[in-house]
Amino acid sequence: MTVHTDVVCPFCGCLCDDLEITVEGNEITGTKNACAISRSKFMNHGKNRLESPIVDGKEASVEETIEEAAKVLANAKRPLVYGLSSTECEAIGRAVELAEVCGGVVDNTSSVCHGPTILALQQVGESKTTLGEVKNRADLVIFWGSNPTEAHLRHILRYSVMPKGMYVPEGRKGRYIVTVDVRDTRMKRLSDQFLKIQPGGDFELLSALRAAVRGSRIQAESVSGVPMEEIVELARRMKAAKMGIVFFGLGLTQSDGRHMNIDAAVGLVAELNHHTKFLLTPMRGHYNVAGANSVTAWQTGYPYAVDFARGYPRYNPGEYTAVDLLASGEADAAVIVASDPGATFPVDAASRLARIPTITLDQKVTPTTMLSRVVIPVATAGVECEGTAYRMDGVPIRLKRLVKPHAGALTDAEVLVRMIERVRELRGEA
Amino acid sequence: MGDIIVKGGYVYDPANGIDGEKVDIHISGGKVVEETRERGVKVVDASGMLVMPGGVDLHSHIAGSKINIGRVMRPEDHRKDPVPRTRVTRAGVGYSCPSTFVAGYRYAQMGYTTVMEAAMPPIGARHVHEELNDTPIFDKGAFTLFGNNHFTLKYVRDGDMEMLKAFIAWLLRATKGYAVKIVNPGGVENWKWGKNVGGLDDLVYNFEVTPRQIITSLARANEELGLPHTIHLHCNNLGVPGNYETTIETMDAVRSIKPKEGRGNTIHVVHVQFNALDGTNWMNVRSGASKIAKYVNANPHTTLDLGQAIFTDTTTMTGDGPWQFRLWNITGNKWVNSDVEMEAGAGVVPYSFKKNNPANAIQWAIGLELALHIYDPWRVYMTTDHPNGGPFVFYPQVISWLMSRKARTDTMLEINKAVMRRTTLANVYREYTFGEIATVTRAATARVLGLKDKGHLGPGADGDVSVYHLDPTAWRPSMYADLEKAFIKAAYTIKAGNIVVKDGEVMATPLGTTFWADARVPEDVEAEFMKDLEEEFSKHYTVGLKNYPVEDAYLPTQKAIRAGGD
């Protein structure tokens, strides 16, 4: 029996790195410090595994799957490489390279989650921080359209609500917690103030708060269902904070207004910096979605939705984003890495995946593997192989290898490297 | 890797006293040697051409979270400069925030073979190294940020030099950093409360130490450890008119510190263009360059680099959060702030240097004034603080301004006339020689970095050579356009004996070596330090200490430069 300490959890953007995982033989038998989701990921990592590479529904060797995948890609006019947010950075880099070699498109899951956050960043910027600053200094924490009690379980314990920090020695008592959401969530009980707003009212409320911070009067009794006095009071509280932070989630990025909501949030926070220290940080979902944006940006200049059809990278969310490329019928082949768009995409996009040759790298049987022509089982990063992941705030941490890969599976990066080599050969480049 | 002879060129190798003589350079096993075997050796015909050691840039922002924020936030910048893939090279983008691959190619195309990333936040060190591993060709290193680190502030407050030294040695090893970088000491910590410091004797909140104490303590510790490079300092008050006084005061604060044995200098001040402003506000700003030059000329313990401003659209990015906030307020452009727990911060704001803007015209002149008023080219280095003053691909233009008064005059005629009244540039007749250019871009930068095998072509040096399509014997300052053409696309760039660029085209993309500084303190001191570190770390960081140091997996080719004696 081996107990691995300081294990990094490859599930959500919190990237907790204090887990203890017990391994007996090649089996994970126990976890400590893990949240319920994390525990389930570790304990069940061996279940529902893909047992063999598959081509056209038949079992095949790894070599055969790579050969078939390379043939599909070498002949495709507009292949899409998609996913990437739940694998490690080397694999992400190789996926970008594969798209480049094929003259295809590479996109990651941020196009369906925090893409609007990035659009807002490109419009107006962002005043952000790593999570330790929040733990050590923040006396006002606002959750807006995000619910860590369901999605980022230990965020509350480790970073934002409970921990004792350098200048917040009292922990929870030293912080004022505000939650803004359209419905009652479990955050209500944890918060000092809960603002239940009308759906689609985020932009207006953020703008009203900004006006209040500036001292401008608004001729309204309430905005988005929040009484004016409460808005003025919250603005006063924000200005009086020693250090404040807004954590926002998909409630803000994927509701009406999308990137305009984030623009408004960034503007409010920027405004507050004339009075005190104020920051905001997106609650990223997948454990390495921040890494997917990072790697894609340093290799191509753009964080997602990158097209190589002309031999150089071009960027156009809304056109080169996976959902749009599939729904428009443009994509004529797809490589899916560490993602399950067959289950999560809108039906127009998902059904296109079933009609074109789709090549999927995954550990488990998923709706996407079931509609793929080529399926290649791979090792789980952070459990069966090492690699880098970027926490939601951009802090890079090294993932651990705890057990041997299931049935000798290759890693995502190894599979992608082989595919790149073979595609280059088929295209007469190597 | 076969042997190579670079034959018949006019060689400028200032470190070895070679000034334009026809000398053949022999390279074997990646190193410069006295003589190669004649048989099977590849001959690079450099006759009639300019030959120098490979370029060494000691201050550039090319890898890590800051430049990557710039990349993410500026698609409009990339759109100006797309770079298609070839059979040898990866696709990417250029201009002010180039993709990693393109940065590697373009530096090599200009004949540069060593580039230092100027600011690495410790907790983000893996990110820097991951990007460096995707940046081909040149050798590299990264400077670890120390000036606002809580452990620095604590040990400075306690006056505990031994613990400070142990901390420096540990953090350089943990981050695989090359030098002690300091950015707006104290100011960045105060920025975590939305404030700044206004001078060397302001107090840092909660620590009650001053920037002066931080700088002098780190400089002393740096020299006592014998690190290969001196402290690498971005001064307080950057971008504030009148700041030339702070700059001189800062240099003077470390004057009495004893340098490491074998070197005369104790402080490198970075991108001084931004820190040499006279006047009281941006309306009446004028150049303070000659005052700084006068101080530097009289004080051999100082070195500096220019941070030359270029008239173009660029992206500013520094570890100086409060300055970037101020710049955002001046420009109204988009603004990213990025605070880093316990250690550092950063900000990114796009900026255009405009010819008709009086302040920009003055800033442009200041960089050149510094280079031309400081007599000793071994102590003033050519940079644009890429991309803050402008993208590094403008280096050839800077060279032409340094070497040709006509180039300067032609530019002065196009820009705001404030440059005539509020700087001394029009009265400067000095023109750099090829030997001086080789000094400020290679020999001197390598020497101040403590990279003994770089920046020269003597036996034992790394086989890094650049050859340019330019006959220095026929060149005259009026021909500055030829100079720019020659320096942007080298005839040959040879890296560790491999021809990586030929006629401006990238031929091969080997991965360069990462240098880091390996310093040691006595074991008992280290043990005491580790005890203190462990206790504080677990309380205040959000990653575990065991997950903090950069693993060897991130440094596929590394070379530790031992601190201390030779």
Protein model, in words:
- The complex is a heterodimer of chains A (430) and B (566).
- Chain A is globular, with a radius of gyration of 23 Å.
- In chain A, strands 5-4-20-19-18-6-7-16-17 form a 9-stranded mixed beta sheet, sandwiched between helices.
- Helices cover 37% and strands 22% of the residues of chain A.
- Chain A has helices at 36-43, 62-75, 89-102, 115-123, 131-137, 148-151, 155-160, 187-190, 202-214, 228-240, 250-253, 259-272, 289-300, 322-327, 341-344, 347-355, 367-370, 412-426, and strands at 2-7, 19-24, 27-32, 54-55, 58-59, 79-83, 105-108, 125-129, 140-144, 176-181, 193-196, 222-223, 226-227, 243-248, 277-282, 306-307, 314-315, 333-337, 358-362, 374-377, 387-390, 396-399.
- The model of chain A has no long low-confidence stretch (mean pLDDT 97).
- In chain A, helix 4 packs across helix 12 (259-272), helix 9 crosses helix 10 and helix 9 packs parallel to helix 12 (259-272).
- By secondary structure, chain A is α/β, with parallel strands linked by helices.
- Chain A has 2 domains: 50-113 and 287-426, Rossmann fold (3-Layer(aba) Sandwich); 115-282, Dimethylsulfoxide Reductase, domain 2 (3-Layer(aba) Sandwich).
- Chain B is α/β, with parallel strands linked by helices.
- Chain B has a domain at 56-372 and 385-431.
- Chain B is built from 18 helices and 28 strands.
- The longest helix of chain B is centred in the last third of the chain and has 18 residues, at 523-540.
- Chain B starts with a strand and ends with a strand.
- The model of chain B has no long low-confidence stretch (mean pLDDT 97).
